[in-house]
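User: Structure please.
Assistant: Input sequence and predicted structure:
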Amino acid sequence: MYQTTKTYIKPHIRMADLIFENPYLLLLLEHFGLDLVVHDKTVSQLCTENGINEKVFISFANLYNGFTSIGSEGFDSGHIETIIGFLRNAHYYFKYDKYPEIQDHIKKLFDKNPSAEIRMIEKFFNDYFMEVSEHLDYEEGIAFPYFRSLLPGKVTEQRNGEIKFSGTEYLEHHTDIESKLADLKNLLLRHISLKNDPVNRRKLLFSLIELEFVLSIHSLIEETILIPLVINLEDKHTLG
């Protein structure tokens, strides 16, 4: 029976049971660099054996289960490296897994529906993902190194140079990225009629919905956990 509500994850629950309930947790394991074979280990055992901070793991896992009100309480600067490592792995998934998959669905859709509308969808998505890729490259090349430079014992030249980080601009960019993906879904569901290939149309929509879901979690991690930690570090450096 399909469940519309998911379990609130706690340390003693077996990871396999959680994955059966919500297969998207496989992505969580992948982004933490974990083996997908979890045996009968509990969440706590899995974290301990792999050297992953339990607080970070459970908070992220609950995002995948639909519990979005976590905030940065209970996190500290010592969690930043783990968070950045997780986000970097998610970037790889976006760029080299979901993007080629969606691009392939659009190509197959055009093969059976060679129309200007499908070409428009293709251009819209390619332009959209180019913007996403630029944002991910910005995170990897500028934002993440800047965040690390704030940590104790790290090189701080970047903070004193031309590269600056704006939390406000960063959050606005996230909102723009998510709204454009919603526009694309609306085009497919409300405005473009296709006579052929409902299978690829459905696969394309499923892939877009998954991309939207994981991107929203990515943004929540940055907006509600990582960025508040960074701002707190900036405040300490300013006061210091």
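The chain has two domains: 15-64, 77-239.
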